[in-house]
Design a protein that fits this description.
Strand order of the largest sheet: 4-5-3-6
Radius of gyration: 22 Å
Structural class: alpha+beta
Order of helices and strands: HHEEHHEHHHHEEHEEEEHHH
Shape: globular
Number of helices: 12
Number of strands: 9
Oligomer: single chain
Length: about 300
Amino acid sequence: MKILQLMSKELGLDKEFILQISRNNNAYKKYKIPKKNGEYRDIYHPNKNLKLLQYWLVRRLFSNFPISEYSTAYLKGSSIKKNALLHKNSNYILHIDIYHFFESITDYHIDKLLNNVNGLDDDDKELIRNIVLFRGKHLVIGSVASPTISNCVMYNIDLEIVKECIRDKGFVYTRYADDIIVSSKKYIEDDIIEKIRVILEKNKFVMNDEKTYFMNKKGRRVVTGVTLDNNNNNLSIGNKRYKEIQRMIYKFLVKNEGDKDKILGHLSYIKDIDYHKYNSIRNTYCKYDKDKKLFVQNKVNQ
């Protein structure tokens, strides 16, 4: 299989042009976006030519690799809500974070995947690495190839964690990108953390100890940002965030302050996670929304 020849034929691009794109060290534009802790996250956005090649490889190559049933991100029908629902009835929850997830996926992991594909020669593999990895070294946030490839890389790791730590114990296991969640109705022993750590490190990933912790019904249970109500196990956005969004809506509608698109995004999120909260906000603030900037109808029916 000559990836370069096939890519050139299907995309209608000259082979030398494709090679130039793959070797361009300035093919990404770097952005910084704020994180919740006040720090910034680096986003690397590929130019349109490189993005085209990445899309092609995802469609023609990486989409053929298996994805584990435990992955709840970057798949059709997946969402943080679906992930949280799987754990809502559990009394005990363990959250494990993988440190610098995309950046930890390197040429080592790509080669390991590509070694399972018949017909690829060294030139093919080098071209693929140069297209999907930042300067041929690692995945980055912003690349259109990173989500799919990360799921491909984690396939065997998910299966190994389930086999060694989850199976036959009545635990629920999911992984939303770099967030590993283990939950159970019964107590989860501490040693599971070290068992999962060993599996991750064997596969060249590092556990983020600062974001690894247990939760139970004596405190807040939060799964991928979604709060699980300790009384009825319903999903919610949490009172603190709910009040913050209320203040944003009031300032926007009454004082004409704030970002409309950002608020609409928050409202869409609330509607998906907690319909009754959304309807409550709608009924409260519709009277201020005379121009129907945020709420088109007076009431939502479900």
